[in-house]
Amino acid sequence: MNTLLTHIIPLMVALAMACSCSGGSAQAASEAAPAKMEAAAFCADSAMEYARRQVAFGPRTPGSAAHDACRDYLVAQLRTFGADTVIVQSGSAVAWDGKTLPISNILAQYNPTTTARVILLAHYDTRPWADREPDEARRNTPIDGANDGASGVAVLLEIARQLNLKAPEIGVDILLTDVEDYGAPDWEQVDNQEATWCLGADYFAAHMPYTTANRPRFGILLDMVGGRNARFHREYLSSRLAQSVTAKVWAMAKRLGLDNRFIQSEGNAITDDHMPLIRRGIPVCNIIENNAADTGTFPATWHTLSDNIANLDPATMTDAGVVVLTIVYNEKP
Ligand SMILES: [Zn+2]
Fold it and tell me: Quick one: DSSP state of residue 125?
């Protein structure tokens, strides 16, 4: 993903129309929350293990053997976690560098015949270049993508495992998108740099397996949800273009006592996988670390070789997972 320049925003808006299970920190903090809400169960250790497994494949750059092995692992896990259907949507897209990249979006459905549905998504590909790496000589090296890629997927795998243990009342689609992070590096001069990101989500949005009857009522995107001391501000585009679900997420975080993690103020505008779905009429909120205390935008590990498993914090993933899963369990058909 990338941060949008503020001058692009008005145009975009116009165009867009033995694990430590349970709620963990959410449960402890919820005692002080004004309106009590029982936090959904979520296992931090499981989520951490799912992130570790992804990173162990190596960088999951589009078309690589590591990417394909990770894709197969994710499909197998979702089947193990009782998804009623798991499909791989295959396609391709021409990237900014002229390469034709294969796309494999993974879609798992729970309660597939239920028309009242929500969609939860995260990207599983990782960035081929560490273009923010302080050491210039290493900027062509692919990153581990522990936070940027694996963390969101790990949270969704743990959510899938929980959905298998306790069924939701609504239908739930889990979409693991491909080719999110192949956007042109800053050193390349390309037209419309913003359009070079999110190619897998673009493809999904153009080939959605929905009718007007069973189209998800809203979606939640998880991206970079595993950073240490991460704070989630309301991402600007979500807050403007997917207002009700964004309000729902931050209100739930408050009720769970997690407003030290989910900050009740607006953050940066971010090009990410929520936008293709928003453009197709599904309001999707992006939970992403931005407005980091030290950098003002993304965390310092973003698109660097330090985006590795050692810098991942299971407590952050747990807070994100608990908020999303508690929303899912409280959603009525
Ligand atoms: Zn990225």
Answer: -
Residue 13: domain span: 2-330
The percentage of the chain sitting over the pLDDT mark of 70, rounded to a whole number, equals 90
- Centre of ligand 1 to C-alpha 302, Å, is 7
CATH code, 82: 3.40.630.10
Lowest mean pLDDT among 35-44, 107-116, 321-330: 35-44
Tell me the C-alpha to C-alpha distance, in Å, between residue 45 and each of 51, 257, 296: 10, 21, 30
CA distance 82 to 46: 16
Domains of the chain: total: 1
Between the CA of residue 36 and those of 23, 32, 72, what are the distances in Å? Answer: 13, 8, 40
How many A from CA of 193 to the centre of ligand 1?
Answer: 14
Q: What is the Å distance from ligand 1's center to 183 Cα?
A: 8
